């Protein structure tokens, strides 16, 4: 087995627990690995602003850590404070997606310059999953999680005159399962279209994913993919799990991720990352 030189990990459902915090045991394990020279990379579907607080907590700026945001669309160097990779959706594509979303009972969101741009800042709460009675205030969840201010627009398709890194849509999980194929149909050959949570379906540039971001980081750092351990739980983590030398699924992961993983660790509420690092490092 190759020596592990890099740890790349998803955030929600992986690095943080259900309360959205890094537990002391997981933090200790990551800081210990970093102190031994292992490079830490946080890779999330969240915007960069939504994961910077975790970078601060793990001292990434002092240790050449990296942030992969928007499911691989952007890579940020915490030490140099430079964007080292960025691939966005073209303006005409974004306008077409947002126009098409008007046909569906979903809540589209596009961020820019610290604002999350939406149609309805007071969108009703939605269920967290099919058959789950728990409800979530989707606007508060995304705005607070991404550290955004919120801005309403009457027409997002008309508003967008820039290249966004992603277009996020939220909706009832049961409804999204029924309509997602129709939502993605006009764009599936030119954009990545995927679930990132039962209540989130999003669009990102074609060919962009966490594995592509990982490959660009490995080239930059002269670290081979075989020397990387990756942690994830959702389908947007799948390519990263497959690309890394050791792909680790949290026990709460989706069936596809569980099947693809080299190892299944404990859940994100049971310090799964710390458990796996104790085994492999």
TrEMBL record:
Superkingdom of the organism of origin: Bacteria
PROSITE patterns tied to this protein: COF_2
GO-annotated cellular components: cytosol
Residue ranges of the TM segments: none
Gene3D superfamilies: 3.30.1240.10, HAD superfamily/HAD-like
One MF annotation (Gene Ontology) recorded for this entry: magnesium ion binding
Name this polypeptide is given: Cof subfamily protein (Haloacid dehalogenase superfamily)/HAD superfamily hydrolase (TIGR01484 family)
């Amino acid at each position: 087995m190759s020596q592990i030189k890099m740890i790349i990990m998803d955030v929600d459902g992986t690095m943080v627990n259900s309360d959205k915090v890094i537990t002391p045991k997981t933090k200790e394990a990551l800081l210990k690995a970093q102190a031994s020279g292992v490079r830490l990379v946080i890779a999330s579907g969240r915007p960069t602003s939504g994961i910077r607080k975790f970078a601060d907590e793990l001292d990434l700026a002092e240790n050449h850590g990296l942030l992969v945001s928007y499911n691989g669309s952007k890579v940020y160097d915490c030490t140099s404070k430079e964007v080292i990779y960025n691939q966005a959706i073209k303006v005409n594509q974004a306008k077409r997606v947002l126009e098409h979303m008007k046909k569906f009972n979903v809540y589209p969101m596009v961020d820019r310059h610290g604002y999350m741009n939406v149609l309805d800042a007071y969108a009703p709460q939605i269920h967290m999953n099919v058959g789950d009675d728990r409800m979530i205030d989707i606007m508060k969840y995304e705005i607070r999680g991404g550290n955004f201010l919120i801005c309403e627009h009457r027409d997002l398709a008309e508003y967008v005159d820039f290249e966004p890194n992603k277009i996020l849509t939220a909706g009832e999980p049961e409804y999204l399962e029924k309509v997602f194929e129709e939502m993605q149909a006009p764009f599936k050959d030119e954009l990545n279209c995927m679930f990132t949570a039962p209540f989130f379906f999003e669009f990102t540039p074609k060919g962009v994913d966490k594995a592509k971001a990982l490959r660009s980081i490995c080239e930059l750092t002269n670290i081979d993919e075989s020397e990387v351990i990756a942690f994830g739980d959702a389908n947007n983590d799948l390519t990263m799990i497959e690309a890394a030398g050791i792909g680790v699924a949290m026990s709460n992961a989706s069936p596809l991720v569980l099947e693809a993983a080299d190892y299944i660790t404990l859940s994100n509420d049971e310090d799964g990352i710390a458990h796996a690092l104790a085994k492999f490092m």
